[in-house]
Amino acid sequence: MYFTRNKIINIIGVSCGIIFFTLFIYSQEQVEIRNISIPEDLRTQARSILGFKSKLSDNENPDSYEKKPSDSSNECSKFLEDQVWRKNRIKSICEARPEYNATQSSILYLEKKNLAYCKHGKVASTTLSSEIIQLLGLMKPKYSIGRESNKAIHQLKQNTIYPMLRRTTENKDWSFKRDLVKNSMSFSVVRHPLSRIVSLFKDKILETEMKQRSFRESRMEILKKYGNLSFTSLVKFVIKELKEKCSVAGCQGVNGHFFPQYMKCDYCRMPYKYILKLETFHRDLLCMGKIEKIDFREIQENPTQQKNELSTSELLNSLPKHIYEDLVRVLTPDLEMFGYLPETYRELNSSSPTSE
């Protein structure tokens, strides 16, 4: 076959273009992968997530909880797109991580609304309790925003709401719960596990009087073991508890305020209709209610918001480097399953400005 000089030049040009484009795409993928900087001993564990293109699925701003979106069709269309991403993410991780399968399923069921909910401590549980209270017509004028309303709602949810919601599923096997989840308006709410630990510190250490019962035993244990109630002491306590009390078989005796999210709701087997995220909670709750025709009114904001000026990044960056890496290590399953990046608030390879 005879090739003119111009044809040869064209072929070479096209070939170079293809090679350049391929190298460009590859370099972009490597940039994305390098941005997920994980300690060397975590790389084997985390390798599977690199292939799943970890991302902040909703363009999530970790500090955007208080920003309410407008009630528009575009917002709910995006919400439905995010549902596909979140469920595919969970499915992929469940297939890649057999050890994340067959975990606990603490399902709460509201028969009046055919609503099934799997809750986590420090993940909008108080806000959702207030929603259930108003759905049941138990809301009173005194349940407005404020310290007294928080106390009243807390007592009502502990003494009335949670026992009632557990009654249907208590002592039932996983197949019963799975069928219930499958045939109801079922959902669960998750959050970045690192910000969850910060929220625990703000709510149960900084803003809670020592005499109060909530988290009291853990506070006393932290104080006895580490000599203070600093954020670093809380993190050391959490790491110790998760390392000593959690295994592939589950966690025994771990406080519900930091019980691993992936172990609490059996995400690999429970076909939740919706997976909400705290980072986009207002939009998610609004759209879920709109689609399902449930009158969520957002009558109470999360009481742990705006309690002090310390940001999540500031607190996490105050940790010594090795402690921060240990925290990421024990929280890796939650990071993987729900598509959160370990470097959302702090670079893993950065040194702490302080040491303890």
Features:
globular; two-stranded antiparallel ribbon; about 350 residues; about 5% strand; 2 domains; alpha/beta
Overall description:
It is a single chain. The protein has 356 residues and is of the alpha/beta class. It folds into two domains: 1-34; 46-124 and 169-338, no CATH class. Helices cover 52% and strands 6% of the residues. It is built from 13 helices and six strands. It has helices at 5-34, 40-50, 73-96, 125-135, 147-166, 174-182, 193-206, 216-226, 231-245, 261-264, 281-292, 312-317, 321-338, and strands spanning 107-110, 115-118, 185-190, 246-247, 250-251, 274-277. Strands 1-2-3-6 form a four-stranded mixed β-sheet, with helices on both faces. A two-stranded antiparallel sheet has the order 4-5. Helix 4 (125-135) packs across helix 5 (147-166) and helix 9 crosses helix 13. The longest helix is centred in the first third of the chain and has 30 residues, at 5-34. The protein is globular, with a radius of gyration of 23 Å. The termini are far apart.
In short:
This protein has 356 residues and is α/β, with parallel strands linked by helices. The protein has helices spanning 5-34, 40-50, 73-96, 125-135, 147-166, 174-182, 193-206, 216-226, 231-245, 261-264, 281-292, 312-317, 321-338, and strands at residues 107-110, 115-118, 185-190, 246-247, 250-251, 274-277. The radius of gyration is 23 Å and the shape is globular.
